[in-house]
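Q: I'm a student working through a structural biology exercise. My instructor gave each of us a protein and asked us to get a predicted structure, then write a short paragraph describing it. Mine is DUF4125 domain-containing protein. I'm not confident about reading structure output yet, so if you can add a plain explanation after the tokens, that would really help. Here is the sequence I was given:
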Amino acid sequence: MTMNHDDELRESIVRHEWNQFQNTNNEGGRAACQGNWPVFHQMRSAQFLTWPHDLLSSYAADLDAADKVGRNLVTEKYGRMMAATAPDEFRKNIEPYIPRLSADRIARQEQVIKQQVAWAADFRSRYPKLGQAMRVLTTNEDTPQATSFETYLRGELGTYSDATFDLYATMINERASANPPLNITEETLLHTVRLGGFESLEEAEAVQAA
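A: Happy to help. First, here is the predicted structure for DUF4125 domain-containing protein. I'll explain a few features afterward.
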């Protein structure tokens, strides 16, 4: 199958993230998921299949810029998550060494997060078996062993450049304003199950329920 430019760009981004993931040190040793390229590829590709070209290009530029100054955006993403899962460790050993976000940026991120958490909750109500396979939903459900969808998203958004975040927020706002609204969690999970060999969410839900 011939890949178009966006397909090639997505593949490049997923491979770039994978390479950064390989250089992410996990407390307690290397995580099992760091050796599972097929699942990593499926999950990240499904997310990026929902993104328009300009957002893909901007994020690819973020990854390149990070390499040039010695930043690892994947490591930073997991570090930012520790603000919720290991706050003392975050304050002492992570927060001083990562870029600080402005109050305006944090407020705008929280608006995006609120919308996406609502979409994820709606998806889980309609596809409960697929929902059970997802992360727990909200930050107040975090534990040292389990990071929620909300906390993961907050960590990831915090690594985006201002340009990339602006494009991302525009995408979310456009979906929320559509009639009917376009649930990005549902679209991402549809791509996920199709990459896993299913035709539809309904088919995947039925298999999970069996």
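A: Here are two points you could use in your paragraph. The chain has a mean pLDDT of 93. The longest helix spans residues 103-126. It's a good idea to check both against the output above yourself.
Q: Great, thank you!
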